[in-house]
Amino acid sequence: MFCTWISTVAGGILVLCVSLKIFLPYFWADLIYFLRRKRSKATVKKWAKNGILSITDLFRQSVEKNPHKPFLIYEGTVYTYQDVERRSNRVAQAFLHYGNLRKGDTVALLMGNGPDFIHVWFGLAKLGFVVAFLNVNIRSRSLLHCINTCAAKALVIGEDFLGSIEKEFVLNVLENNVAVWLMSASSPFQHVHTLPDKLDKVPDHPVPSHLGAVTDTANTALHIFTSGSTGFPKAAIITHRRTLAASLALTQCGAVSQDIIYVTLPLYHISASLLGISGCIQLGATCVLKRKFSAREFWNDCRKYNVTMFLYIGELCRYLCNQPCVSSIEEDRVHEVRIALGNGIRPSVWKEFLMRFGPVKIFEFYGSTEGSLSFLNYTNKIGAVGRADVYICFPFSWPAGKPGLLVFQVTEDSPFSGYVGNKEASEKKLLRNVFVEGDVYLDTGDLLVMDEDGFLYFTDRVGDTFRWKGENVATLEVADVIGMMDFVQEVNVYGVNYEGRTGMAAIVLKRYHDFNGERLYKHVEAFLPSYAQPRFVRIMDVMQTTATFKHQKTHLANEGFNPEIISEPLYFMYEPAHSYIPLTREKYQKVVSGEIRL
């Protein structure tokens, strides 16, 4: 009787498992992710009850649990959790004694990757200051704009940038009543403070806790700037609640305290600072911090430090795939990396990466600096940025197979804090009275598409998509098709001014390969509709990218296809020859005059 009962139960379980596999293949993945998200929300609430309302509160807890555990490894030097706590305490003490600032003031950081970035960040936060991360690659006018926008009362400049900072820039900052601090023992400028010498004069014990106490997690913790690809960078307001929520991202990918996370992205970027550094703190894990990404040194570093997880963005994984192979495929797979988290990897690169470097679980996500909505591809399906799971973590609707503009409702649980000092830009992001009177939605500016299984795919930025002959052209789709050619290493597609906006592709050729205009013509004709086929091609030695490895389009689009301006080889699609042929100055004049029609 008992055996019969056991057999019946076992048979029922087997039938259930097989049925789920056939009819609901992602049931368990959906359930696990749903439970992880619920646990994450519960964790943030639990933190609030226990007085953990900021990232420095969370860090202090990790210090108490693991004071002697390595927190940072930088250029071979190990910094324990306690080391970073004491050093950041000294920064707080120095600004308390010499800073002449008040709680709530904004201090801007112009610093490269290194332990001091984190020491200064945490030290300032312990005094209740709002910290603004500045992009170290922008200069002069844009930099002054950023400092003025966030109403910074002080600016801390890293030692690495002393040689590139112009005297005129420093004078302009000082004239705006912004105190300037240098991470250097001496200063080449007058009326500028130096920080390292003052750190030696102050104690390393904590400043009074009330100075940095957070009373509301909706208050501002950071200002992180957008890329500024369509104008001056905008300072997104990052709340304490968001920094704490972001710290749980690594956990949702299955990371644990024993993991060693490799951060090569710039710390001023939200992925490196909030997902990487804050994520390590939440786990109590170790972070291997790199001054600057190096494709050549990447895997050697991973092997040297036993890295198990890394963060990527943009074209970073492509650069790894473009590196020359070592002596054997097996050697490329000799590493301990099991997880990669990021956004911007192309499907073709994703496949190549797995083939070459082994079964790394790649968690592609969708998110933005200013928006609180995010998706995570927790099933690791190639190409997807997330999934609309059956438990409806996010309330939205989407017709399968049709690209659409992603908007999400602004609520208490999904707030939009806007941009500091730019009410006009903040308001432009909002759509009001969309479905019912009084509702508010955030316009992400991103086009996504959902397949029949509920997987979401990033299609393009609205600003990157262009119209040609009345049809919308998605630049990423065109780039993926051109990237299939065996002589193409990298491609960037954008619209240029010709009878409205027509497509142009900037291509970097693979080593020892030549451009073949006839083959490319046949290829795009076979795989792309006529309106999406690029009419112009530009051959480049190196692709222009941002500091976060995203393709730059604005500058290329502004240069257009004029051989008088562009010294690199140019080609245009010439139907009579069934090929892309050289765009000489003579041919250019015939194209713009209309004598040659495209």
TrEMBL record:
Q: Where is the AMP-dependent synthetase/ligase domain?
A: 59-387
InterPro entries in the record: AMP-bd_C, AMP-bd_C_sf, AMP-dep_synth/lig_dom, ANL_N_sf
Give the GO molecular function terms.
long-chain fatty acid transmembrane transporter activity; long-chain fatty acid-CoA ligase activity
Q: Name one GO cellular component term.
A: plasma membrane
GO annotation terms (biological process): long-chain fatty acid import into cell
The catalytic activity, as recorded, is:
a very long-chain fatty acid + ATP + CoA = a very long-chain fatty acyl-CoA + AMP + diphosphate; tetracosanoate + ATP + CoA = tetracosanoyl-CoA + AMP + diphosphate
What's a Pfam family in this record? AMP-binding
**Family stated for the protein in its record:** Belongs to the ATP-dependent AMP-binding enzyme family.
Protein name per UniProt = long-chain-fatty-acid--CoA ligase
Look up and give the organism this protein is from.
Zonotrichia albicollis (White-throated sparrow)
